[in-house]
Design a protein that fits this description.
- By secondary structure, this protein is an alpha/beta fold.
- It has 13 helices and 13 strands.
- A seven-stranded mixed sheet has the order 1-9-8-5-4-2-3. It has a three-stranded antiparallel sheet with strand order 7-6-11, with no helix packed on it.
- A hairpin with a 2-residue loop joins strand 6 (about 160-165) and strand 7.
- The chain is globular.
- Bound molecules: pyridoxal-5'-phosphate.
Amino acid sequence: MNEFIPYGHQTIEEEDIQAVLEVLRSDWLTTGPKVELFENKFAEYVGAKYAVAVSSGTAALHAAMYALNILPGDEVIVPPITFAATANAVVFQRGKPVFSDVQKETLLIDPRLIERHLTSRTKAVVAVDYAGQPCDYDILGEIAARHGLAVVADASHALGSEFKGRKTGSITDLTTFSFHPVKHITTGEGGMVTTDNPEYAERLRVFRNHGITTDHRQRAQQGSWYYEMVDLGYNYRITDFQCALGLSQLRRLPAWLGRRQEIAARYDRAFSGIAALDPLVLLDRRTHAYHLYVICLNPDYLNADRNQVFSALREENLGVNIHYIPVHLHPFYRRECGTKPGLCPVAEEMYERIISLPLFHGMTDKQVDTVISSVNKVINRFFK
Ligand SMILES: *Cc1c(COP(=O)(O)O)cnc(C)c1O
């Protein structure tokens, strides 16, 4: 039997461990010099003016909603094929997520459908760079400009990807990232918001620290105890030792992205001749960051459904996964927003066909070969 191959896994090397140890021996455990350094290096990497580090990708989305001043009853357009946190962040601000369907070929939000969902309460669109492929930010930007909306990119999958030569993180009003261990780089838990807007950057900083205008390090430097809480904020701070880990990981990101793209290219070649598998389409003028490699089953050629293929792949010891259950089908959204099957037919159809294969930068060639041969074996078994 093959050894178990997870769908994603972090890489921690000796230099990461040393970087964290150095901070643990210093005076700053929470907000300290490494937070600012990580923010600066990250902003420089993606080509944004400001980066604000927070405690998770979910906190980053919540902070982005706050920065945009999403108020009770405001509507925000979101795609159904994403992690629930994308929509939850709207609800945290008592706003209403409005689900707008995805394109079949890419599972990215379909720009042609967005305008149907606009009302006088619509404030923003959150686009998700699903699997690591950037959405069409030219078209989304035009729609937003026409209707006075903000565009947020949930780029949790897409650190290092590019749209027409511009890095994700520098394209939209706000972009959010996650540093969960399965993502491109990790801080254990952690997230980042990037923007070119100084007012948004200030609001993000206040929001992550209880709505207080100065942090304890600034007060120590000023020799002052006085502070003001100007708005309702949260403790969404990230620690200094997490940012030391993030800095150390960021240095290896270019090499890791290259490895992810290499593995994806091998999967593409291996599966291109299999009629039962439709690959997701890579659109023009994109650099794909390949957080996920997703195969779509073509039911015309198979006498098994997705769940049977999924179980057979798990029996081969592949840590396959499903990204995602359409968010509007979760009981919470059915109950609170009245969503139901039929609302986003493309998402619902594709959900029944998708499987994410193992893909992470630390995968060996042998593991990649094992995935390819196991997929071939299972597909052959169920081929009509
Ligand atoms: C990982 C992820 C998040 C949430 O990030 P956390 O750091 O786990 O809070 C949000 N959106 C998408 C699309 C993600 O993949």
